[in-house]
Design a protein that fits this description.
The chain has 164 residues and is α+β, with helices and mostly antiparallel strands. It contains seven helices and six strands, in the order αββαββαααββαα. It has a four-stranded mixed sheet with strand order 1-2-4-3. A two-stranded antiparallel ribbon has the order 5-6. β3 and β4 form a beta hairpin.
Length: 164
């Protein structure tokens, strides 16, 4: 009986150890690039608090806590109720590519901060880059870089930024 109990304890411990090894990759917490200052029970801010709908109007603006929503582990802020409603109706249309990480960074297999000041709408999708120099490099071959980044993102999306 004690041998059977020992086997059960060993199996339980092995199962726990295996789940701890698998859990970080299966449930990565940083698939969204967020900054401090989130609301709505604690999520970090998506796109540094900028209103993602406003990018599609040509003039990005910072959103307000008054018009905020938690979505996919991030707090999104909006400048108006209309923009919040537009996001609620079609979040995939407005969410930044690659979880808001730098588009060119993803091409390099990295998760770098995406700065809303260095953004571009391409084929109806919002792309962010780390800085002006990086955005210039990314813009040399936008179509090619988007294709590469799409392929790489599928491989690194669930990997913690610090592990890349």
């Amino acid at each position: 009986m004690s041998s059977r109990l020992s086997m059960m304890k060993f199996a339980a411990a092995a199962g726990l150890a295996l789940s701890l090894l698998v859990a970080p990759s299966a449930f990565a917490l940083d698939e969204q690039n967020v900054s401090k200052g989130g609301t709505l029970a604690g999520p970090g801010l998506a796109v540094h608090g900028y209103d993602v709908v406003s990018f599609f109007g040509g003039q990005p603006v910072v959103g307000s806590d008054q018009f905020a929503i938690a979505h996919n582990g991030a707090a999104y802020r909006f400048a108006t109720q209309a923009n919040l409603d537009a996001f609620k109706a079609s979040p995939a249309k407005y969410e930044p590519a690659y979880g808001g990480y730098c588009a060119y960074g993803v091409v390099l297999g990295k998760k770098l901060d995406g700065d809303p000041r260095f953004s571009k709408i391409v084929d109806g999708k919002l792309f962010l880059n780390l800085n002006g120099d990086i955005q210039t490099k990314w813009a040399e071959d936008i179509a090619g870089n988007v294709k590469k980044a799409d392929d790489i993102w599928n491989k690194i999306q669930a990997t913690a930024a610090g592990k890349l």
